């Protein structure tokens, strides 16, 4: 009986994921309303619940995909994977006025370059502070602070050790997860309440999953603006980190 | 028909991804450069064009709106499938590196945004987005 139920959920994993996420959302909005009187968005709570579950899933299975590594919840991997996430992000652009995008365009692009450099320097400085002197290691960890994709790609290009590459991925994951949590909490202080600052935010932070979830937890109407710049960030990071930024680090070291 | 809207969305996504891929290859990086952003711009232009000509009936639009409304649930599923355990087991270098990057990044937002523009969020969508507008009444 239990086994057949288990098999069924496994077989219809995506549909099961819809149900699980629906329940999570309901619970999150209930907590938001009941305990914070709506002050902390239901979506922010839902995302934090998701992260907590992902932590448990990762600890239990030792896998890399959080709760989705537990067979019962494998549908979460498809539902929250890159394909449907990108489809939904693009759908948020429906109803956006192009003028708004154009007005913030130049600043958004400036923020994009500044964002890659600032994150890279932050990661590189911390690596240096912890005694790393090899330019390849400093560059790889700096690149990891850009995003958890830029780190390993840069490390592979420069021939970094697997230990350093693992560190760079972890730095990128910390950034992404912290962005999800910190964005709704700091939004008021950094003026993150209009399309322009959202585009700049997307360019400054850049890590797609962090920006996507951070803005969703802050104000869903800002999502298309932030996502639009953030989508260029990882590509730009992969372009700059192993080339210009690596040369700069080697020049300084 | 609803599928027209979904197909329009999917078509924009695929064209955007192809362009992003070509851009990446042109620059010699093994990554998609802004494919999603390009797809978003395409969707804005195409739906704007169709709407002005009255060729975007409600059924078609609802195919796009459904995925728009699914955004937050999908993001929650994404959060639930993040490698959170690895982020916490990366040690102090990874933790501080990530934290510093976020703190500096957030602090720079007002620097680049400059003086606050008078307009806040304005969209010309047909109706308010359910997820963002009903937060305070949800669950009542």
Automatic annotation (TrEMBL), chain A:
Transmembrane segments: 12-31, 40-58, 70-96, 108-130, 136-158, 165-186, 198-218, 230-249
Keyword Transmembrane: yes
One Pfam family it belongs to: MadM
UniProt key word Kinase: no
Classification via InterPro entries: Mal/Na_symporter_MadM, Mal/Na_symporter_MadM_N
Protein keywords: Membrane, Transmembrane, Transmembrane helix
GO molecular function terms noted in the UniProt entry: sodium:malonate symporter activity
Name the UniProt record assigns to this protein: Malonate transporter MadM subunit
Species: Chromohalobacter marismortui
Automatic annotation (TrEMBL), chain B:
Residues spanning the membrane: 7-27, 33-52, 64-81, 87-109
Gene Ontology annotations for the cellular component aspect, listed alphabetically: membrane
The entry's keywords: Membrane, Transmembrane, Transmembrane helix
InterPro entries per UniProt: Maln_transptMadL
The keyword Membrane is assigned to this record: yes
A Pfam family that the UniProt record links to this protein: MadL
Annotated spans, Disordered: 120-140
UniProt name for this protein: Malonate transporter MadL subunit
Organism: Chromohalobacter marismortui
């Amino acid at each position: 009986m239990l086994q057949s139920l288990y098999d069924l959920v496994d077989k219809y994993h995506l549909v099961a994921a819809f149900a699980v996420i629906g329940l999570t959302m309901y619970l999150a909005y209930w907590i938001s309303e009941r305990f914070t009187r709506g002050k902390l968005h239901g979506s922010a709570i839902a995302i934090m619940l998701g992260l907590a579950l992902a932590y448990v899933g990762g600890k239990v299975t030792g896998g890399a995909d959080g709760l989705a590594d537990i067979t019962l919840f494998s549908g979460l991997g498809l539902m929250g994977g890159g394909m449907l996430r990108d489809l939904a992000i693009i759908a948020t652009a429906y109803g956006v006025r192009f003028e708004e995008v154009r007005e913030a365009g130049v600043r958004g692009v400036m923020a994009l370059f500044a964002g890659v450099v600032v994150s890279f320097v932050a990661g590189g400085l911390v690596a240096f502070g912890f005694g790393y002197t090899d330019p390849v290691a400093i560059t790889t960890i700096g690149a990891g602070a850009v995003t958890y994709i830029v780190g390993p790609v840069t490390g592979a290009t420069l021939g970094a050790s697997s230990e350093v590459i693992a560190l760079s991925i972890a730095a990128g994951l910390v950034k992404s997860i912290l962005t999800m949590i910190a964005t709704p909490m700091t939004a008021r202080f950094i003026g993150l309440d209009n399309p322009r600052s959202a585009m700049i935010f997307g360019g400054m932070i850049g890590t797609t999953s962090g920006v996507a979830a951070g803005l969703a937890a802050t104000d869903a109407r800002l999502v298309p603006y932030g996502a639009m710049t953030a989508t260029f960030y990882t590509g730009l990071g992969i372009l700059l980190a192993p080339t210009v930024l690596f040369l700069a680090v080697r020049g300084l070291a | 028909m609803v599928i027209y809207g979904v197909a329009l969305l999917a078509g924009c996504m695929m064209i955007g991804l192809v362009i992003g891929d070509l851009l990446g290859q042109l620059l010699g990086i093994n990554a998609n450069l802004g494919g999603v952003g390009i797809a978003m711009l395409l969707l804005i232009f195409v739906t704007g064009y169709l709407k002005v000509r009255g060729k975007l009936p409600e059924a078609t639009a609802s195919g796009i709106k459904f995925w728009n409304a699914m955004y937050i649930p999908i993001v929650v599923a994404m959060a639930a499938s993040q490698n959170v355990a690895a982020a916490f087991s990366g040690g102090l270098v990874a933790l501080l590196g990530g934290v510093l990057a976020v703190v500096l990044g957030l602090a720079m937002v007002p620097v680049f945004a400059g003086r606050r523009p008078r307009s806040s969020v304005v969209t010309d969508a047909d109706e308010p987005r359910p997820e963002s507008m009903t937060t305070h009444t949800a669950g009542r």
